[in-house]
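so my prof wants the structure for this chain in the tokens format not the other one, which i didnt know existed until like an hour ago. anyway here's the sequence
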Amino acid sequence: MRKKITVVGAGNVGATTAHWLATRELGDVVLVDIAEGIPQGKALDLRQSTPIIGKDVALTGSNSYAETANSDIVILTAGLARKPGMSRDDLLKKNYEVIEQCVNQVVAHSPNSILILVTNPLDAMAQAAFKLSKFSRNRVIGMAGVLDSARFATFIAMELDVSVENVSAFVLGGHGDTMVPLPRFTTVAGIPITELLDAATIQKLVQRTANGGAEIVSYLKTGSAYYAPAAAAVQMAEAILKDKKQILPCAAYLEGEYGIQGLFVGVPCKLGARGIESVIQVKLTAEEQAALNKSADAVRQLVQVIGV
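here's what i got, hopefully its the right format
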């Protein structure tokens, strides 16, 4: 039997996620959104591409969660973008309401699914989904570290003029300004970048990675990134659906790992059929641990606003 994947939200991120899922032939896809006609139209358009790309995937668009029943994975991309005059807390509360509605539907229709959160602010929304769903912590995962690591790897490859396939980047912490890229664990063909780049250049790349989303927004003016975020979510889904035991940086609910308790923070995780199969702990320097704690504190402030 084919796997079933639901993508909640048919905007740029959701539709692109459905596209990547189809190209990887990971399973049948249901695209669900409250906007009438949008998920149906985009799903039909994508389905009509499958004979061309040679992928046997059924894509369905719906305004009802009934179509999503018994999904193996649900990728949540729905949410509002920040509008002029809207505070960060306003956005946080609005998107919490969106996630609450979505998660209640997912739990009712796909109680055995694994949730991958993409909606921002990512770490807080993952925490909300975890608390609302009452799923075990291995079944609620935030997509952030894969994207941040990909951005870091991209900038390193550009700087050194090497293949992106040679670069293995390592990023911890929350998604955003407080992320914690770790240069000493970041390598090019196994060589730490600290051996290939000077400290000033590494710091420049770290800063560009932290501002990766904002840089794209500054170009687009009226939108934000969606190709890379969608690809990142699909990489996580593929690791789970194929039981790959792949180690990827994900936002995970920590229960003492890295000295952090009861909070979603980006850490390396082994992803397999059960979702997060283990959290990989590495020994951090005092400076790295302090940066991770600062990142966790920023997430804690957000979850306190929505009371989760």
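also thought this was worth mentioning. Residues 6 and 74 are 5 Å apart (CA to CA).
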